[in-house]
User: What shape does this take?
Amino acid sequence: MHAYWALSLVYIAPKRSPDQNVFSRLERIYEIEQHIYNDANYKYFCHKYQTSCDPVNSILTYFYNDKLLPNSGLVRDTRERLVSILASVPSSVLWYTGGKLSNYSSALLRSEVRVGIPLPCYDDVTSTLEEQHGLVQAFFLSFIPYLEGASSDDLEVLYGGYRTCPSCS
Assistant: This one.
């Protein structure tokens, strides 16, 4: 059996900001997501596909030149890239923007950091679910001070979490 928890991140361009397009803040969002991905404990907790960690489920994977290489650089024309993404996978963009995209602009983006169990050193999910849940919860809670300070005058950062576990009570 397998289960995962997700830390949901929501980035909002505040109404008081003159620029309501959150796409103009992709570099700052990238910094926030890289902070989590580069955390010393991330590789222990991350949701794994085969043997490597899943990247943060983020629209940023479409906007950076090489999603597998950190600091590879933001593409030059984000609007052109967004047009290309919309042509090939429009439903994906709508998930990231909360279904609201107008004139290649959105005031909201969301991302998801997934943590999978069983964690290393555990054989299963069910017999130690609460113990593993406590470890995952502590891992997520360790980001609260950083996320609390990540909001600024031109970007609000909201966060929350949930668990998905078929057959777990």
Q: What stands out?
A: The radius of gyration is 17 Å. Residues 58 and 111 are 5 Å apart (CA to CA). The first strand starts at residue 3 and ends at 12.
